Amino acid sequence: MNSSFKSGSEPQQERSKKTVKAICESADTLFTTYGVSAVSLGQIARDVKIPTATIYRYFPNKEELVATLRNHSLHVMLDDAQAKFDAVRNIEEYSKTLREVLWDTYQEVHEHAYLHETYGALLSERSQKGFLFKENQKWVQILYIAGRRFLSFESDELLKQRIVILNALWN
Length: 171
Known about the structure:
single chain, mainly alpha
């Protein structure tokens, strides 16, 4: 992962930042290889060659570590999608970019176990009860960016016609 991770207890010293980054990178690799539920914080600590207590200094539990990884990945995907859609100049480019963003998102979700579990939760009954609300917002933002960019190519009249059709289908 290429940009900085934000943990529950944001480190100030450079050495601490490197430790958090190493923890996150190790967790990402181990979670992706073995699955989130199969990996303990102790295994991550051994992989990073630090005491398990050091992980708890930055992450109170495994769920917080998973949430940090998930939020980081979602922010990266959101930033990438925004940059790609900002560069779109016409409807043909939009169509190609939309396919690209959806494919990139699909690959990212299936590459990282913690995102795959998030995606599963979004489709489950738990998501309807507010589970992972912040993550839901990130997925919606990616789709919103795509939709907003698409609408910039539509005339007002055509947009109104599409809204009427969608409302009729919805009701």
